[in-house]
Amino acid sequence: MRSVPCEPTFAMNAALNNEPSFTQDQSIALRQLRLRWAIALVLNLPMPFIALPIVGSGWINQQPGGVAGQSMALAVVIGLAGLIVGHIARNQAYKAHWKGDVIEPAGYVRGNTYFFLALTSAALMLFGLSISGGWPAPTFAAAPILIGLLIFNFPNGRPMQPAPPRLLDGDSL
Length: 173
Prior knowledge:
Low-confidence stretches: 1-20
Order of helices and strands: HHHHEEHH
Helix content: 55-70%
Distance between the termini: 43 Å
Largest sheet: 2 strands, antiparallel
Structural class: mainly alpha
Number of helices: 6
Strand order of the largest sheet: 1-2
Radius of gyration: 22 Å
Number of strands: 2
């Protein structure tokens, strides 16, 4: 008869300490997704600081005043469209990979990648709008919001974990 070592495993320790335990697939998915998140953040961070010198240097003709308001309205629409499209795409990927009360690692990576791509695409469109229009305000107005949304949606892997048991009425911790 083969003996089994009595050492507690990582999953047992995590369960005892109420910490989430990740399988190897979940850990790999989380690592991949955090890399994609960092790439999206690195792409978004310098955009306003690149747009200002290009527009301010005089290489591009400045827009007349009336077009500036239209550019800001377009910036708001593009930013909201990126947010809405990203959330819808992420939720659809989550629904396709929903098993029980968790999302499979492949669906978690795919859904969040769609969300990061939608936000980064919106930021790139706003950057192009600023450069082509000669007015950096759309990039400066929307970039902090899009970067904030990326930071707020840091991949923590929680959707890949089972939900904690809910307390019933009258129960206490």
